[in-house]
Each structure stands twice: as structure tokens, then as C-alpha cells.
């Protein structure tokens, strides 16, 4: 996925304190135009607080934050019109019909349309994009949980946001709906250059969608990089499996590319059912969080963040 030049999110030394308790400790990261970031972490890690500060709904205790070039603590309506938010909980629009609701909400974005970005999104195109064409005239209260979630997404992007916040976006989706939603996220990032920050407990989803993974634990960013970068730094080794002359082989190596090349040099096309497996994002995530929570390897985790950046 290509990423544009402009910095959309710029967070430096963000701190948040409730009373005498710090819940965010010098959190720093950036996101660029068209980039998809996944913010992962256990419950209580500070994800919701971070998102609410970026959205301008919560004041920070210290640090510098710029969202689309503006301090969210002072963002006006024109700035907010450039954001999209899809919350985890269902909004109560039960008596509205799908088209009527999106038409109505879209009107609020029309004054903020520009030559570069036409707002709002055409209602029919938007409904098709989230897979609700067959339910255009249905009342929201009659939709299934997955369909309501699609409507939530439509509400979040009706204003063609430059920055989109997604909180557990595919909760309640069946596998087909989840795949279609993933396609939509990729289109938003690739075609519209929308920057997307998502939180999810579905690590497989994060690995498929995100250009970069941020892992937050104990109010600190303990890792920042692509899923592949993180797995390489943590695991170091890859498992190579293949079949030759009907026999199955398994080999563990730190140089998988070189090993596979030499394997084909030796056996050529007789190598079958080749698999190369590095640590999954779930493996990496669990390792990092467990190390942090056990108090082990704090120095290593800090240096990992610097190396991966």
C-alpha cells in the first residue's frame, strides 16, 4: 500500500494523568497520508484515551499533538469535518431509513466541500461501498447486527474523511462482510489517500490491513513497525517446510531466503508444497506484551522501537 508524503498525525511525548496516576507515558508516533495504522494493546493499555485525545474529545496533560496540522484541543468545525469516526458501540438511529439517515448526515458536510474533496459522499455510492444496497429503504432497527455495523461505517465516512478512526470496525461481521470491509479500507487508503487509525482485538485483521502496527502496553508504545518487521526482530527465525520425493521436511533458519534459494539450487522443481512461516503478529504481540508485563526486557523493547522506526 503506497503512503503519501504529508504527516497527518504527529504525536510527541504525549502524557495523560488522572489524579496521581499516569495512563500515558511519553507516547510518540506519526502517521502519513494514506497510511493504515493499527493500535493494539491489552485492555487498560491507554488505547481509548489516546484516540479520544486525537479526536479532540479529551484534553491531554502534556505533550504535543497535531492532527491534520491542528492541535485537536483547538479544532474547529471545519477541522472536525475532515475527520471520520466509527465507534465500537451502536448508535441509536433505529427509526431512520438507511438512505434518509445518510442523506441527512451528509448535508452537514456540504459546506466543507473543496475542489480537492467533494463532500459528502454520494449516497448511492456510499451505500454500495458498505454493502447495503439491498437495504437502502430499510429502517435501521430492522437491520442485523452486521448490517448495523456497516451502517456505522457509512456514517463514519459519509463526509469523505481525510483521517478515519475505526474502533473494532468488523465486530459482528460474517467472513464475507469482513472481506468486503477490508477491500473498502484498502480502497479508502489507496484511492482516496485516507489515513486510517484502527483499534482491534483481531490480530489477523490488523496484520491484513495495517501498514504499521503500534503496540501500546502500560501507557507506553512498546513496538512500532510493520507486522513483518516486528516478527523479524522478535523471532529472528523462520520455519521452512517442503516435500521432496514424497517425504516431508522441516527446517528452522535465520536466513530463509538464502536457504530456499539453495534448496531449489539443489533439488529444483522436485521441491513441492513449500511453506515459509515467520512468527505471526499474534506470536509477536503476545511475546512483547508478556515481556513488558513481567518487567523483563524493558531496555530491549525500547531499543526495538528505535530500530524498527
UniProtKB/TrEMBL annotation:
Keywords: Antibiotic resistance, ATP-binding, Nucleotide-binding, Transport. Pfam families: ABC_tran. CDD domains: ABC_DR_subfamily_A. One of its GO terms (biological process) is response to antibiotic. Residues 9-243 form the ABC transporter domain. GO terms for cellular component: plasma membrane. It comes from Nocardia aurantiaca. One of its GO terms (molecular function) is ATP binding. It is found in: Cell membrane. Its main location: membrane. Belongs to the ABC transporter superfamily. PROSITE patterns: ABC_TRANSPORTER_1, ABC_TRANSPORTER_2. It is a peripheral membrane protein. Coiled coil: none annotated. This is ATP-binding cassette domain-containing protein.
